[in-house]
């Protein structure tokens, strides 16, 4: 009988303790220590779709899925034969126009001026000779010594010679004056257009090489050598790894405890007990509903503020999208400017 009573009392004690534990868990769920604030989030997923800024056939693909790349590393190239022909043609047209502009600016050469003067002198002599010949033929025609047709021909020849003399004088004046300002400016404008075309041809040739824009890991290799590409067709998907941060969320009641520059620690379920150094880099000025992907201790429909926590990942253990817990110590008296050391990821 006594054993039965003891069992009942023990059962009642266990139920009471369990109920108290459940009550305490519900009561203090989401509460944080006065010395630290705990936030929940995920390692931010950042991806870049890499594509050529050109339309051509792929010549080579230099990296594979899983390869780590550095900024400026060559990833792929296009066939460049046609692009090189376009550069050579543009260069030739540009050089030809440069010579044209130089010729117009330099004006007439001394030899051209001297030739124009000689042409004027020759035309003047021919005009004088034709005029004298016509003058001699006119009296003879009146005395019927020569035909009137011959006299008229001599007069026409004299007038033609005088016109040629005047034309030679105008040609000499043009040689002395030089090219028109409008012609020079037009040639310069054409030169600028050809320079732009040449620069565009060089840019298209340079765009035949695809480089990594930042540190990251090749997540997808979408195309292969021989494929035809366009600016709208990605070649690689690059997962960015630097800098790495956790996108966490803080309630409005905890917002006043945070400020940019505060030191933080990041932990994950994949590496229990291991802490990664971090610091708060950004606090959103606007509220939002808690994302459904975040396992937070607050009600999912509560309004929260996004907090970006930069984190050090020296051993490359953190993965994009990994759930993470952020612990922000609140007992540090340092100012935001002094919270983050010059090199926060360097071992002290």
Helices, strands, pairings?
Layout: H1 2-28, E1 36-43, E2 47-50, E3 56-61, E4 68-69, E5 74-78, H2 81-106, H3 110-142, H4 148-177, H5 181-206, E6 209-211, E7 216-221, E8 228-229, E9 236-240, E10 245-251, H6 252-255, E11 263-267, E12 276-289, E13 303-311, E14 323-329, H7 336-339
Structure notes:
InterPro entries: Beta-barrel_RND_2, HH_YbhG-like, UPF0194_transport. Belongs to the UPF0194 family. Residues 84-206 form the YbhG-like alpha-helical hairpin domain. One of its GO terms (cellular component) is periplasmic space. The chain is an alpha+beta fold. The chain folds into three domains: 36-45 and 243-329, Efflux pump adaptor protein, beta barrel domain (Elongation Factor Tu (Ef-tu), domain 3, Beta Barrel); 46-80 and 206-236, RNA polymerase II/Efflux pump adaptor protein, barrel-sandwich hybrid domain (OB fold (Dihydrolipoamide Acetyltransferase, E2P)), CATH 2.40.50.100; 88-201. It has seven helices and 14 strands. The strands form three sheets. The protein has a six-stranded antiparallel barrel with strand order 1-10-13-12-11-14. Helix 2 (81-106) runs antiparallel to helix 5 (181-206) and helix 3 packs antiparallel against helix 4.
